[in-house]
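Checklist before submission:
- one chain only
- standard amino acids only
- sequence pasted in full

Submission:
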Amino acid sequence: MRILAFLILAASTACAPAATETAEPTESVSMATDDLITEPAALLGEYRVAGVDGKDINLPHGISASISAEEIAVLSQCVRFKWAYTLAGGGFAASRVPTVSCQRGLFPEEEAISRAFDRAVQVRGTPANGIEFSGEGHSVTLFSQ
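Returned file contents:
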């Protein structure tokens, strides 16, 4: 029994760094990606809408977003939303653009996505390499497809 305890202690001590060793500094992921996005070029692309107001979206279908230099288009089955946007000096502003969409009722998640984009005033990178639009207590989170 003493031999087993000694072997366990020796193994754990061998794996631990010595007290005089110093770890090399590493860049924090959140510091590198939790930055305010200030250029539209950083937003260009196709995305999956993953969350709204801090909650995951759990619908039987996916919701996508396509972002160009001037517009954000969201598609949820046959429901479409579109916004023209500006992004300058750390501020974000979006205004609705009329678009063809089906006439079915909206899921609560779709309503929340619409509200979040309507009220967003800033865009940030997330620690998980996503993009979060937020403002007035609402947010929508996108991940690259």
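Reviewer check: The CA atoms of residues 114 and 139 lie 10 Å apart.
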